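Slack export, channel: ligand-projects

TW: morning all. Re-posting the request from yesterday since it got buried. We need the structure predicted with the small molecule present, not the apo form. The ligand is NDP; the SMILES is in the block with the sequence. No rush, but it would help planning for next week.
GE: picking it up
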Amino acid sequence: MPTKVAINGAAGRMGQRLVALGCQDKSLELVACFEYSGHPKFGQDAGNVAGVGELGLYLVDHTDESYDAIIDFSVPEGAHAAVERAVTAKAALVMATTGLKEEHKAKIREAANVIPVVWAPSMSTTVNLTMKLCEIAAEALKDVPGGADVEILERHHRFKEDSPSGTALRFGELIANKMGITRHIHGREGRPGARPHDEIAYHAIRTGDNPGEHTIIFGLLGETMELTVRASNRDCYASGALQAAKFAAGKPPGLYNMNDVLGL
Ligand SMILES: NC(=O)C1=CN([C@@H]2O[C@H](COP(=O)(O)OP(=O)(O)OC[C@H]3O[C@@H](n4cnc5c(N)ncnc54)[C@H](OP(=O)(O)O)[C@@H]3O)[C@@H](O)[C@H]2O)C=CC1
Ligand SMILES: O=C(O)C1=N[C@H](C(=O)O)C[C@H](O)C1
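GE: finished. pasting the full token output, ligand included:
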């Protein structure tokens, strides 16, 4: 039986790729494409919006169809609506939206008590593998003589509304946990003085149509290690999200991440 999937934010950059890839995947059935009723493309065929031709699936804000999983690539307010939809439908939730406020995060954690939730700032296989590699590096370098300075550089398209990326923040959280770092700063200006050891700095570049790139720098005295992972298009995220929906459908309630989905 194919996994029945709904998409929240279906007319967006990511939503369109989910429609384009999902309609070709025989192990899935796209049953609902949600957008808010004020969306300029509301009511249009989701396939036409995604550039794959008519699918007979329309951009709606309600459906009577049942679904096994809902995937959210929207905005914080949309994520809030997606959680409510998932709980009402007793469906698994794949939460991909970033830039969430604490209230949204709390709602997602609460929902995980009653439905399965896969929650990740990046659904990319190589990003989640790089996170594992960074944890190994952080553990190995946490007490290196002279210390290891960690800086995280992320690059995204000019349209991205949140900064730094959710992925960059997650990289920083994982590394900080391993190295006992407590300070997180965003950029530098003026005369901040010499850099303290227990600090991770984030730098966000916003140019053109970059689909996402992260470089994690471990700077020692005498040598530097950099781990870079970059997307060439958005399909790495979309395919990961569809895989997450198939993984989560039918799972017991709880909070899952992409390591669970990918077996990392
Ligand atoms: N986890 C991951 O792997 C990835 C996560 N992301 C994250 O996904 C999110 C979306 O990214 P992207 O697709 O580029 O953004 P877009 O702005 O292109 O898409 C968001 C879509 O959601 C719509 N929307 C706005 N408000 C609501 C609402 N209340 N309910 C439902 N839909 C709504 C937007 O409409 P409108 O245009 O009118 O605002 C738009 O169609 C971002 O937070 C991004 O960081 C992105 C890529 C990968
Ligand atoms: O907005 C984007 O495009 C992306 N956002 C996610 C994030 O904030 O980490 C994931 C990916 O980097 C693309």
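GE: first-pass observations. Residues 8-9, 11-15, 34-36, 39, 73-75, 77-78, 81, 96-99, 120-123, 162, 166, 237 surround NDP (ligand 1) (CB under 6 Å). The chain has a mean pLDDT of 98.
TW: perfect, thank you
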